[in-house]
Structures are given as structure tokens and as C-alpha cells.
Amino acid sequence: MELSEEELRLLEQMERALVEEDPKLASTLRGTSIARTARRRMIAGGGVVLAGIGLLIVAVLLDLTSVLQTVVGVAGFVIMLGGAILALTSARTPGRPAPKVRSSGRTGFGVVDGGRQHRPGRQGRQRSGAPFMERMEERWRRRRERGF
């Protein structure tokens, strides 16, 4: 739904007033600081991953008791995993909307629109509403009629 010219003009006036009154809030709302924060989190996550790898190497190289070596190794792995999770969750594009979930009307799981693009001009295979076994029986019947 498009905004009228009057609404657009009022919105621009409100935006200018916000920038004049609180420029820091306006820059935060524009998203520049959100991207900067995500970049910082990715760098921090990479540093934590490197620290976890370093702890794993220390656990292997130092002559420790086997129990202490195991504890230090597991701690290094957990730290490394936490850093990877921190870096990867902040790597998402901040302005990108979450994927839409299509529901087929049934309860349970829905289909997430993700990486595969739907092409409007291309027709996919049409699926009949018949259950799986009926479709298989129909295929088998057609094969027998053709003589394969």
C-alpha cells in the first residue's frame, strides 16, 4: 500500500525533526550502527574461536595429567564452539527479513522459503492430490500397458 504525497511529506518532516533532536538515535534507526555492531561481533567471535583453538593446542602440548588434559581440551572446544556461534549468528544480514513460513493448512511443520528461488514463468511438475501408493499403482499400470 503506497503512501499519499501528504503522508510522505509528513513522514519526511518527522524524520528531519528526529535527526535534529537526537542524531544518535536517528543513525541507530537507519541501521548504520547495527551493521557496525554485527561486524564487531563477528570479529570478536573469530577471536574467541582462535582462543579456543589455542587452548586445545595447549592441552595437547603441555605435559598434564590425562584428566586435566581432557578438561582443558573440552573447555577449549566449548570456547571455540561458542565463538563460532557468536560469529555465525552475527553474520546474518541485519536488514534482511526472516524467511517466510508457508503452511499447507495442516498442523505441524511448514515449508521455509529459503535459498531456492521460485521462477514465475516456469511450471514445475504438477502434483496430484492422490496419495503416494495410488500414484505408484498408476505408474505401474501405465508401464504394464506400454509393455515395459
From TrEMBL:
It comes from the Bacteria. Residues 134-148 have a biased composition (Basic and acidic residues). Residues 93-148 are annotated as: Disordered. The keyword Nucleotide-binding does not apply. The chain crosses the membrane at residues 42-62, 68-88. Keywords: Membrane, Transmembrane, Transmembrane helix. The keyword Transmembrane applies. This is DUF3040 domain-containing protein. It comes from Nocardioides eburneiflavus. The lineage of its organism: Bacteria, Bacillati, Actinomycetota, Actinomycetes, Propionibacteriales.
